[in-house]
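Chapter review. Work through the record for Spondin-1 before attempting the end-of-chapter questions.
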Amino acid sequence: PMRKSGGLDPRVVLLLCFISSAACNTFAFTEEPSDRAVKADSYCSRILRAQSNRKEVNNEFRLRVEGDPESYQPGSTYRVSLTASSPSYFRGFTLIATREGAEGDRDEDYAGNFQIIDEEETQFMTNCPPAVTESTPRRRTSIQVFWTAPPSGTGCVLLKASIVQKRIIYFQDEGALTKRMCEKDSTDRPLLDCCACGTAKYRVTFYGNWSEKIHPKDYPRRANHWSALIGASHSKNYVLWEYGGTASEGVKQVAELGSPVKMEEEIRQKGDDVLTVIKMKAQWPAWQPLNVRAAPSAEFSVDRTRHLMSFLTMMGPSPDWNVGLSAEDLCTKECGWAQKVVQDLIPWDAGTDGGVSYESPNKPTLPQDKIRPLTSLDHPQSPFYDPEGGAITPVARVMVERIARKGEQCNIVPDNVDDIVADIAQEEKEEDDTPETCIYSNWSPWSACSSATCEKGKRMRQRMLKAQLDLSVPCPHTQDFEPCMGPGCSDEDASTCMMSEWITWSPCSASCGTGTRSRERYVKQFPDDGSVCTLPTEETENCVVNEDCLPSSCLVTEWAEWDVCSATCGLGMKRRERMVKMPPADGSICGAEVLEVEKCMMPECHTIPCLLTPWSEWSDCSVTCGKGLRTRQRILKSPAELGECTEELEQVEKCMLPECPIDCSLSEWTEWSECNKSCGKGHTIRTRIVKLEPQFGGDPCSQTVQRKKCKVRRCTRGQGNSEEKRRRKEQREKQRGKQGRYLLCCRMRPWSSWTECTKLCGGGIQERLMSIKQKFKTVQLSSCKDRKEIRACNVHPC
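Structure tokens for Spondin-1:
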């Protein structure tokens, strides 16, 4: 039997424990040992079948998949968040993903895999491993995890959440705590017609996350890059690329060569099916910190008939691997234009080359395979190989943001403040048709808002006309306006409490081990309707200054506040310090960090406007073959008395031409070998090795073996007198004259096999023999004797 705690029915307490570990920790109760064992295989199904009284309408909590997709791409990874709208919060939760209609009794009922982002916030449930729950029991307003979609063929999936708030449980079976997603199949699902009105303008930004740190296996350090990005906004009648489709010649040239020329030609040939061609330049290297170089971006427009957006860019070097979006629909079912789309990208195979690694040799696939996403089980030599078949870590992220709308809109869902402000700001920006002949000062800071309350007002800034280079052309726009609200107001909480900023955290309550610290804020303005303000004014969290206080430990103080940023505008650095309170008792060096430095970003730096000519065309590549550089310039047109212009006047980028010819490279000759005869006439050889084979049409290799005659001493032959020597000499001369006839008087055996090389490396010698099979009358002829050949072997370096 269970004992009640706090007057709560023990059955409710047990139900709370099913839903959340935090809820279980909130109440103290005990069970008889015989009742403790709970099988994990049934625990998950009990969570799914749990029921409770709940509010009929509950909009306080929301389960959301980033980008709000209606379908999932098999194997893709999505960010899943669970949020509470202010002033609500939750203490515990459970998050689980199942096949639609599944009971949760079998392993196959659970779809995909969750991945923990913050171990201090979330963990896998002990008794139900597929589910995620909280790590620590405390108030929270949001959590995030990653979810990798299941493989193809799974069908529809339900992401479900349960929320514990005090002693109330909000279940997952309906409403905003359930997210239904079905498998994406672009080949079977027809694209819906767009019902939106007017046009919309978007900015697409590409973030390359392909780096040696994140994808270390076989990472190509020297040549890694993203090719020039190419794409378009288009109608449903045109397909740039799609999973299950066949790559066009344009897609093939992007995938294999990184060249967008043919792809752009194909896009422009589609006429009215294309509204905007999307282009970004190549990125060398593939990954760069954003504080060194801004992520590349491009702008494009969509309308009712051309509301889809597609693009691709090659991972280089690779056989035919790319990333991109295919027919991303920016028209919503509410007849509006999507405000923001963010997607993590995994590489896909164009089906034109059969290579399995980044730098595999060319291996054309004939006939072409279908376009397909790469998987972690494709090939053991693949850089993305995982024997357990896990999801591939995304190599890039793309963000598509709406920056303006034009024309009359007909969206069913009313615009929010963000929509209105974005459109107003863009309209003013686009209408700023300031001529190049007008030179202005920097804009002044924004004025105070015309509204001191949370009602909408306006604020203004000004600039001064410094020079008018052409008096016949007027210089407009010396004032600028934008919407605003009073101090402390926010769009979301205009009808609730206005709170101050949080005051600095108090010191940690413990100098060793885990302690607590708190901070406070106060109510600046109560709700207009006179209701009580329920937002928390105090917040407490755990803190650790020193892990432990052993004699061997180095004890430090808490971190001081951050210093002011080193820059007054743009990117700077800030630092903070702490002190060593007590060094280790054993005299060792204290390893604790006492200084922290991080980047800080101040408002954008403004300089005097520069009047510049357009960029010139790119120069020819600085080399005739291989990798080189090319440049382009522009000229400063504004007068020097206006001040120094800090804009760059020259740009340099890398260029690639066909590889340069590489000639054969040989080592130095070895010393001459010993003579192959101990007496009489013989020969000696010397060798050299090929250090580098000729490539790309370079000069071929010359000889690697040389042979010359040698004579050590005359051989001694018997006791023959001078008369016999003379007679033999005459006989040899007579035989030489008849050599052609005598050659027919002996028959030779075939050449023997070559002997083993005298050295394993560095240049050795092999021999083979041809012996006499049959001699006729002219056996004395020197041409009818055994023959021997010598050649060099194993000339490669040791």
